[in-house]
Specification:
Layout: H1 3-7, H2 11-18, E1 30-34, E2 37-43, E3 49-54, E4 57-61, E5 63-66, E6 70-75, E7 83-89, E8 92-97, H3 108-116, E9 127-133, E10 136-144, E11 150-155, E12 168-169, E13 175-181, E14 188-194, E15 200-203, E16 219-220, H4 232-240, E17 249-253, H5 255-258, H6 271-285, E18 289-292, E19 296-297, E20 310-314, H7 321-333, E21 337-342, H8 368-371, E22 372-373, E23 378-379, H9 386-402, E24 407-410, H10 413-417, H11 439-455, E25 460-463, E26 485-487, H12 489-500, H13 511-514, H14 516-519, E27 525-529, H15 541-544, H16 549-565, E28 569-573, H17 608-625, E29 639-646, E30 651-656, E31 665-670, E32 676-683, E33 687-694, E34 711-712, E35 723-729, E36 733-741, H18 744-752, E37 771-776, E38 779-784
Helix pairs in contact: 6-7, 9-11, 16-17
Length: about 775
């Protein structure tokens, strides 16, 4: 053994390397300048010989300094040359650039910003990133694991041997990094961690941009910089848009079960195929946005994506990251916004994921009373740790920036805000003030929303929050959380429970129909009939409705009509626009056959499901056409009750308005199976009232009870109003009128000229019920009116 070389060895450090316990292998590997020349060292436990190859010079064979696989040599020179290592094994050889000759690509400023929780592009530093350094292409790996004794990159390229590519720890930051030349997109990899107790295990990369298709759990090197986006004009227009005052009809989608190429679990279309089919359908139906149930990588299909293990990975079920970029870009080219479900409230305990990442409770809170959901069996993020908060905030920005998402719908916000959410006494710990509010989560949400507003113009932040926590959509400067919209879970629960009632008993729970208007303007709400309402024995939307088949459809048409006219943006889960009787399941496609099956009971043979789809399509068109249904959605001036106390008839009427009186719409909803003819309804002003939409239209499967002729208001009091009209109110129906005001001077002039007789009465007499014979769905019924 060369004596000079021997005395240059740092034997304790070499021993730590050989025993896989070194967290700064660059100290004893790679090349460095000495007074005796350039010292080059390499380690490979399976190599028999290792040589140093330089351009134009003979190969220098290295000495084996330790039988564990440590090799070194001295070559003449004062500066480190560009070189490659030649590994010779019993069964072959390999030539590669030395991973330990490269400097860190993460700066001290990066580390300090990450430790402070304000490195909003940390996903560009951590993870696996193909790049070129000093003219050599490869992949740069970095992972945060502050309490691990040693971290290595492993994969097929090194036979999953954690001894071969140990990483360098960057000071007190807890970040470990390594550049491995020659590795490119498509390679599988994981991190091997060794804890201070000696336990060695594998973890997927928390910042991986791609993941292996389940049941595989490895991360995949991916390059996100190759896709050519063409949605610049769309994004510019989005940045100028006032979403609060614009129509927003959202179609919630689970990509894996919207359509399947084969009716078997695990059969999926590619993102690119889904883009074209889904965009065509969304445009046909008139939705403004789609909301995708989580597309972040998850191991269990039955979790629907809400048990995330790959927060920075688009799930491999439907293709590659570039395929998903195509999906997003195509939607934008078609003028369709895309909102992504996002789950920062909890994560699963899968051992390859975030749980106990570096041998400690790194991402989760260490106290199970704060770090565990006992009912869900999942773990809760430690929002008070800056690096964890940074991981999540950067993740939301990642989807908004890298994939051009139009918004984020945040799942289970209530579980984040309350320390005692879903827990019994003794299972939770109060905050420093003795309350049940999660102060760290509050600060995290405010931080997140403030940064999104600054960095992503036009992006929408939506909270699924099911309690009365104040100011969810309140201004950050007014102690609000800063969301743009909140799911109206109260309306959903009240209204679905109301619609479940037999019409005979609805008068007993009339308040459930009207209560939502008491708080409708306390937040910027989205009315939702989501996937949660059509699973776990709750029945489909049609299945919730009482009555026979025809009555179920009539009830559902009335329900959707009321929802569309109620203040707030709209969301409907996929499939419910064609009214299947079965609940949704992620294991099968939607029942598209319902649209084409012939229904002999219908005069035209068209199924009621197809007619329901047409109905929802026309409702969306109505919603987008008339500004009154959205322009003042979050302003009390945009809504006014005409009649909300008629519980005995389960009937309500109201107007939706803009700042222009001529935009006013009158809405009448009847939730009983009774036709009312010549029903006097109070109206907001003197004018002409034209029926523009009727859920009882024959085209939608109804009986055709309606108002084909224009209605002129009269000075007859009804519902406490000076003016009224007499209309036919359809059974289990929703009817909408446009309202054209007539100036009072014009009416007086007509009266004076004798063209119009005054019919003003001090008060309308109570209408007597009459018997009307109507024929509906092959049955003849006597109906009181």
């Amino acid at each position: 053994m060369n004596e000079t070389l021997y005395h240059m060895m740092n034997w304790p450090e070499i021993e730590a390397l050989i025993y896989s316990e070194h967290d700064n292998p660059h100290q004893v590997l790679g090349a460095r300048e000495t007074k005796d020349g350039i010292l080059i060292a390499a380690f490979d436990p399976f190599a028999k010989q290792v040589g140093v190859m330089r351009s134009g010079k003979p190969e220098v064979m290295m000495e084996c300094m330790d039988e564990g696989g440590y090799f070194a040599c001295l070559i003449p020179g004062k500066t480190i040359p560009k070189y490659r290592l030649h590994f010779i094994y019993e069964e072959g050889e390999k030539i590669a650039y030395d991973p330990y000759r490269f400097l860190p690509q993460i700066s001290q400023e990066d580390c300090e910003a990450f430790q402070a929780g304000i490195h909003y592009t940390i996903y560009e530093k951590l993870g696996a990133h193909p790049m070129t350094i000093d003219g050599i292409s490869g992949t740069y790996f970095a992972v945060w694991a502050p309490f691990a004794m040693r971290v290595s990159v492993v994969g097929d390229f090194n036979h999953w041997d954690g001894r071969r590519h140990p990483m360098r720890r960057l000071g007190a930051s807890g970040i470990h990094e390594l550049f491995i030349p020659g590795l490119g997109a498509g390679e599988l990899y994981k991190y091997e961690l060794k804890t201070k107790g000696g336990l060695t295990y594998l973890k997927a990369d928390p910042y991986a941009n791609a993941s292996e298709l389940r049941p595989g759990t490895a991360s995949i090197i991916a390059d996100l910089n190759g896709f050519a986006w063409t949605d610049e004009a769309y994004l510019e227009e989005r940045a100028k848009k006032n979403h609060v005052a614009s129509p927003m009809s959202i179609y919630e989608v689970h990509l894996g079960s919207w359509k399947k190429p084969k009716e078997e679990n695990g059969s999926f279309y590619n993102y690119r195929e889904l883009a074209v089919m889904l965009a065509d359908y969304v445009k046909l139906m008139g939705y403004t946005h789609i909301e995708l149930m989580p597309v972040m990588e998850h191991p269990l299909d039955a979790s629907w994506g809400y048990q995330v293990t790959g927060y920075y990975s688009a799930t491999a079920r439907y293709g590659t990251p570039e395929d998903f970029m195509y999906f997003m870009n195509y939607m934008h080219e078609q003028g369709i916004g895309v909102i992504l479900d996002w789950v920062p409230a909890h994560f699963p305990r899968d051992t390859f994921g975030l749980s106990n990442f570096d041998g400690t409770c790194l991402y989760e809170h260490w106290d199970p009373r704060r770090g565990s959901h006992p009912h869900w069996g999942t773990l809760i993020f430690n929002y008070g740790r800056p690096e964890v908060s940074n991981f999540l905030i950067a993740n939301a920005l990642f989807w908004l920036k890298q994939y051009h998402a139009d918004g984020i719908r945040m799942d289970a916000v209530a579980s984040m805000l309350y320390l005692d959410y879903g827990k019994n006494d003794g299972e939770w710990v109060a905050n420093i003030y003795g309350g049940n509010e999660n102060l760290e989560a509050m600060e995290f949400l405010k931080h997140l929303n403030s940064i999104v507003k600054k960095q992503v113009p036009g992006a929408i932040m939506i909270a699924e929050e099911s309690t009365a926590w104040p100011k969810i959509t309140g201004d950050l400067n007014d102690d609000g959380l800063g969301f743009d919209f909140k799911w109206n879970m109260g309306w959903m629960n009240d209204f679905t429970n109301y619609m479940r009632q037999d019409p005979l008993f609805r008068k007993g729970c009339h308040g459930a129909l009207t209560f939502s208007l008491i708080y409708a303007y306390s937040e910027n709400f989205i009315l939702v009939l989501s996937h949660d309402e059509v699973v776990h024995g709750k029945g489909s939307m049609l299945g919730k409705m009482p009555g026979n088949r025809e009555e179920k459809f009539a009830n559902l048409r009335a329900a959707y009509g009321f929802m569309m006219c109620h203040p707030g943006k709209k969301l409907l889960f996929m499939g419910q626009d064609m009214a299947p009787i079965s609940e949704w399941s992620e294991e099968r496609s939607l029942e598209w056959n319902l649209l084409t099956d012939r229904e002999e009971e219908q005069p035209d043979g068209v199924s009621l499901n197809q007619k329901m789809q047409n109905y929802v399509r026309d409702l969306n068109a109505l919603y987008r056409k008339y500004p009154a249904l959205s322009a003042l959605d979050q302003d009390p001036d945009g809504f006014e009750w005409m009649s909300c106390l008629d519980a005995d008839h389960s009937m309500i009427s109201f107007v939706r308005k803009t700042e222009k009186p001529e935009d006013t719409l009158l809405v009448v909803c009847n939730f009983t199976p009774v036709v009312y003819e010549k029903k006097s309804m109070g109206v907001p002003f003197c004018g002409k009232y034209k029926e523009i939409f009727n859920s009882d239209s024959v085209a939608y499967g109804g009986a055709g009870n309606g108002n084909p002729r224009l209605k002129q208001s009269k000075e007859e009091r009804a519902d406490g109003r000076e003016h009224s009209i007499q209309i036919t109110v359809p059974p289990l129906g929703c009817v909408i009128f446009s309202c054209t005001p007539i100036a009072e001077p014009e009416r007086r002039k007509k009266k004076e000229s004798g063209k119009e007789k005054s019919t003003a009465k001090p008060m309308q007499k109570a209408a007597k019920p009459v018997q009307k014979t109507t024929k509906r769905a092959g049955r003849t019924e006597k109906k009181a009116e």
